[in-house]
Amino acid sequence: MAPRLEYTIAALGVCAVFLMSAMSVARPASAAEWRSWCGEPGSGAGLGWHFYCDRQEDPPQVPGAQPVPVPPSGDAERPATERIEAMRRRLEEARATAILDPSNANVTAYLRLQQETLQRAAAFSDAFRRTVWATPELDYTLRRPVGALAKQLWSDERRQARDAALASLGERYGLIYLGHAGCAGCRVFGPLLRAFAQRHGLDVLAVSLTGEALEGWPEAVPDNGRAQKLGLAGAPVPAVVLFDTQTKRTLPVGFGVMAEDEMAMRIYALTALEPGHDY
User: Fold this and answer.
1) Three-class DSSP category at 168
2) Is 239 helix (H, G, I), strand (E, B) or coil?
3) In the chain, pLDDT over 90 holds for what percent of residues?
4) Contact at 8 Å (CB) between 191 and 248?
5) How far apart, in whole angstroms, are the C-alpha atoms of residue 185 and residue 198?
């Protein structure tokens, strides 16, 4: 038994020495050492499918670097315009498919998509009006009412403001009226303009382009280049222009026959309202 025991101890000692020497020279396997197990490309084909000869090298690690998060690819993360466009394309495609192949399944699929689209539109419309009701600064009908009673009140207030502005208009502005004797519109508009000017106390300079008397304005003066100076040479008649005595500028009120209310509204807008006030 002793010789056999000595042999076993000796064998164990040799193994220990071999392991110590292997550990002393061991180092991390590089990519080249790893591939040496497989040899040249294609030589590891007989090693079996459990043996991977195409190991990829690990990317270098940067100290303190954090992994880059991958953004979610769900539909909710897409821009709203893209989602709306995708819905529209799906609806159009379903409709075209149902037209070309009007089977029960295709028509049903189109009607379901159409119903879904209409439901979304209805939900938006309802949310829109509720928001307007709760947010006065967004309610345009408070500036321009649409209801019969509110619209009547608004019209009455506007008429009062307009008449007040026209009453003080002569302090700064005058009217210039251009026409000629052969103008059919001038024969109708001339007397109307005189009544309007008298009602609101406005000064009017009537200018006859042909030098003849105008209907309702026997005191009309000949043109003598006035239309050219006003930048209205060749303009349609009858024509009414506001003249600003402070800035020496002209503001065209309108061309052609106008009703009194229309003419009053235009003069009020040009002299008393800032651009964009009524819109």
Assistant:
1) coil
2) strand
3) 64
4) no
5) 20
Please state, in angstroms and rounded to a whole number, the distance separating the CA atoms of residues 225 and 223: 5
Strands 221-222 and 204-208: parallel
pLDDT at 23: 44
Question: Helix crossing, 184-200 with 260-272: angle to 10°?
Answer: 60
Q: How far apart are CA 256 and CA 72, in angstroms?
A: 65
38, 118, 121, 127, 128 from 124: Cα distances, Å: 65, 10, 5, 5, 6
Q: Which residues of the chain have pLDDT under 50?
A: 1-12, 14-35, 37, 42-45, 49-51, 59-60, 62-72
pLDDT in tens, 80-131: 999 999 999 999 999 999 999 999 999 999 999 999 999 999 999 999 999 9
CA distance 214 to 262: 22
Burial class of 77 by CB neighbour count within 10 A (0 to 12, 13 to 18, 19+): exposed
pTM for this prediction: 0.59
Using CB atoms within 10 Å of the CB of residue 175, give its burial: 0 to 12 exposed, 13 to 18 middle, 19+ buried: buried
Amino acid making up residue 265: M
Tokens linked to 206 = 């009537």
Q: Cα(238)–Cα(263) distance, rounded to whole angstroms? A: 13
